[in-house]
């Protein structure tokens, strides 16, 4: 029984982890390129959830069109945030940029509360819930959808970064922005593109979690945002495979804590892990092996 | 020392005048229980923001964990004053809170203050959340997520006034002491300070501890005034509230902290019906200030009694001279 529960929780952790991984990718890309902890990233995830809600509930779209439209919408929001709030601060201190990021996060939360109310709303069931039994493990189609979407998006991201010209520009800017500019790369456009990519991934995570937990609210981004930042640091901030790895590790750790009966401490353990990682190995798990940063 | 005596006496006079003014406002009935809340919150916020400004503005370390230390003070004062509902019990609670907050700040600060800027911010945020989660899970002692209620009200405005005065004195004198100068040197350039023989870790940790201890005191006062506390009151948002005061006032300005705490306190009272709209305004202000004036509204400007006195004297002198001239003419 206990072993069965443990395996089931670890499987659940895999799905949760893929959500964290999607979010962590955005943190890691933005940090890699402009050295900023984008505190507002969790809010982009929330906005993604709300956009999905709007497209499915009011425009009566199917799940996949809604997903793609919400990703596009969130990408625009991300680019606008960068343009209006972060770009003027490109040359200022890191603390000033961080306070601005906190301000943006605060602004988005409270704007959503002001315009849409602070209450939880139930996410429309765009896909019918079906459970499959694999031996003693139970998996729902939504969980499989989460995992599949996350993995496909990660592969697409990897292709964009490795194979396209824009991806090459992103890698160049993250290594040395000035040198990249001298080589004729439009640094501002590259940074905007990075924000668009990261925000689109966050929005996908927001919709998937809405579908999974069946509820969204304006404050839903705070805790997952922090946790996926921890995931990004854990994997090695600035390293894309590291963020994915970190996300899965955090997801598994969280469900494992629940499985062994310490569910009250699941958040505390994640923060403690962050502090330990920062002290022992600030570069993260993959920090040394891969020098490439995006 | 003697040279400063005049100015210190003037500051004392200033404090007495403010005290008298508040007393008068109470006496004439301008301050109702409703406005008293604003007054007391301004006092508590001044204490909180002074401590955070010491860490952010003077030591240059970015901490997002102030609310955690506030929670320690609030809970220890509440638990002890519920057990011993006397002034003595309350003060014992404050003292215990200060000691616990100081020890935690020391234990946590020593390793984490090695981290730079944004990493430190996240680490302190994590610590504050851990403190909160531990408090939630301490069973009957802290009554879990429901929090404590029926905390004996020991706080009145003269007590808050006294605490604000003492905390400001301690922090201002610390900033101006040799240790304070060393702390500011770290803010300006850590490597340069270290090469001049400043023990950077030591002064960073001391600033962090002073900030934590004052936050704990403020938490105790808050708990005793409000009489009910829940772990939710000391979340990330509380740390941001304090950060907003520090940023508005000026990162590295004690006078600015006072001005910001008072102005924001009054604004909060006037805008309290606006709810989320108020937070939208604050968030926008935070972003705009960072873009156009990254040092905060008042920067590192300080109100100086000495400067004020010399300026007044100069004006009198010029006035004297002009009257003499008129006479001679």
Task: Write a short abstract of this structure.
Helix content of chain A is 72%, strand content 4%. With 294 residues, chain A is mainly alpha-helical. Chain A has a single domain, classed as ABC transporter involved in vitamin B12 uptake, BtuC.
Task: Name the average pLDDT of chain B.
Answer: 87
- What portion of the residues of chain A fall into strands of 2 or more residues? under 5%
* Strand line-up in the sheet with most strands of chain B: 1-2
Terminal-residue CA separation of chain B: 44 Å
Shape type of chain A: globular
Q: What general form of chain B does the structure show?
A: globular
Tally of alpha and pi helices of chain A: 11
Low-pLDDT runs of 5+ residues of chain A are: 289-294
CATH fold descriptor of chain B = ABC transporter involved in vitamin B12 uptake, BtuC
What is the total number of structural domains of chain B? 1
- Output the CATH topology of chain A: ABC transporter involved in vitamin B12 uptake, BtuC
Describe the structure.
The complex is a heterodimer of chains A (294) and B (329). Chain A is mostly helical and 294 residues long. In chain A, 72% of the residues lie in helices and 4% in strands. Chain A has helices at 2-34, 41-57, 63-86, 94-116, 141-163, 165-175, 177-182, 187-213, 222-235, 240-259, 266-280; strands spanning 121-122, 131-134, 137-140, 215-216. In chain A, the strands form 2 sheets. Chain A has a two-stranded antiparallel ribbon. A two-stranded antiparallel sheet of chain A has the order 2-3. The longest helix of chain A is centred in the N-terminal third of the chain and has 33 residues, at 2-34. Chain A is globular and about 60 Å long. The N and C termini of chain A lie far apart (44 Å). Chain B has one domain (32-298): Orthogonal Bundle (ABC transporter involved in vitamin B12 uptake, BtuC), CATH 1.10.3470. Chain B contains 13 helices and 2 strands; from the N terminus they run αααααβααααβαααα. Chain B has helices at residues 2-27, 33-58, 66-83, 87-112, 117-136, 157-176, 178-188, 190-195, 200-226, 236-249, 254-270, 276-292, 305-328; strands spanning 148-149, 228-229. Chain B starts with a helix and ends with a helix. Chains A and B meet through helix 4, helix 9 and helix 11 of A and helix 5, helix 10 and helix 12 of B.
């Amino acid at each position: 029984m206990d072993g069965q529960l443990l395996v089931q929780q670890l499987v659940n952790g895999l799905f949760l982890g893929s959500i964290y991984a999607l979010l962590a990718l955005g943190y890691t890309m933005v940090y890699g390129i402009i050295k900023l902890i984008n505190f507002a990233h969790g809010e982009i995830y929330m906005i993604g959830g709300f956009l999905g809600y709007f497209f499915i509930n009011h425009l009566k779209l199917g799940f996949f069109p809604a997903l793609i439209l919400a990703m596009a919408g969130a990408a625009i929001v991300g680019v606008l945030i960068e343009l209006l709030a972060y770009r003027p601060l490109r040359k200022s201190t890191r603390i000033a940029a961080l306070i601005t990021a906190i301000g943006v996060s605060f602004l988005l939360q409270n704007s959503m509360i002001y315009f849409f109310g602070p209450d939880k709303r139930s996410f429309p069931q765009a896909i019918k819930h079906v459970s499959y039994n694999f031996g003693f493990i139970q998996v729902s189609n939504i969980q499989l959808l989460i995992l599949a979407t996350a993995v496909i998006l990660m592969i697409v991201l990897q292709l964009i970064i490795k194979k396209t010209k824009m991806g090459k520009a992103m890698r160049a800017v993250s290594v040395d922005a000035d040198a990249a500019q001298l080589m004729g790369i439009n640094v501002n456009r590259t940074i905007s593109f990075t924000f668009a990519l990261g925000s689109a991934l966050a929005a996908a995570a927001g919709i998937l979690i809405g579908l999974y937990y069946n509820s969204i609210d304006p404050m839903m981004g705070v805790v997952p945002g922090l946790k996926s930042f921890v995931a990004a640091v854990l994997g090695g901030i600035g390293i894309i495979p590291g963020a994915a790895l970190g996300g899965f590790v955090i997801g598994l750790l969280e469900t494992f804590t629940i499985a062994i009966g310490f569910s009250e401490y699941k958040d505390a353990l994640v923060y403690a892990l962050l502090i330990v990682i920062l002290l022992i190995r600030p570069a993260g798990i993959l920090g040394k092996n891969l020098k490439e940063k995006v | 020392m003697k040279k400063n005596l005049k100015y210190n006496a003037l500051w004392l006079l200033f404090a007495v005048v403010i005290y008298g003014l508040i007393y008068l406002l109470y006496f004439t009935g301008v301050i109702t229980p409703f406005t008293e809340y604003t007054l007391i919150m301004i006092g508590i916020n001044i204490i909180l923001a002074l401590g955070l400004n010491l860490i952010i503005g003077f030591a240059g370390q970015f901490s997002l964990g102030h609310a955690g230390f506030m929670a320690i003070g609030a809970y220890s004062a509440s638990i002890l004053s519920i057990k011993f509902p006397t002034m003595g019990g309350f003060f014992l609670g404050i003292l215990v809170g200060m000691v616990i907050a100081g020890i935690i700040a020391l234990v946590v600060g020593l390793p984490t203050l090695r981290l730079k800027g944004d990493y430190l911010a996240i680490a302190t945020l994590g610590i504050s959340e851990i403190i909160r989660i531990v408090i939630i899970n301490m069973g009957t002692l802290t009554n879990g997520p429901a929090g404590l209620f029926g905390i004996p009200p020991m706080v009145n405005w003269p007590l808050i006034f006294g605490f604000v005065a003492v905390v400001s004195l301690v922090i201002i004198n610390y900033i101006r002491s040799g240790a304070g100068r060393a702390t500011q040197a770290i803010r300006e350039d850590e490597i340069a300070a270290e090469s001049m023989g400043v023990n950077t870790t030591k002064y960073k940790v001391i600033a962090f501890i002073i900030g934590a201890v004052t936050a704990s005191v403020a938490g105790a006062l808050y708990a005793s005034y409000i009489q009910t506390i829940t772990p939710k009151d000391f979340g990330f948002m509380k740390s941001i509230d304090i950060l907003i005061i520090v940023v508005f006032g000026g990162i590295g300005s004690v006078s600015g902290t006072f001005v910001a705490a008072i102005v924001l306190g009054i604004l909060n009272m006037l805008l309290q019906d606006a709810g989320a709209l108020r937070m939208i305004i604050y968030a926008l202000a935070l972003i705009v200030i960072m873009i156009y004036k990254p040092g905060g509204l008042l920067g590192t400007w300080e109100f100086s009694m000495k400067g004020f006195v010399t300026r007044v004297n100069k004006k009198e002198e010029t006035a004297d001279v002009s009257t003499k001239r008129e006479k001679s003419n």
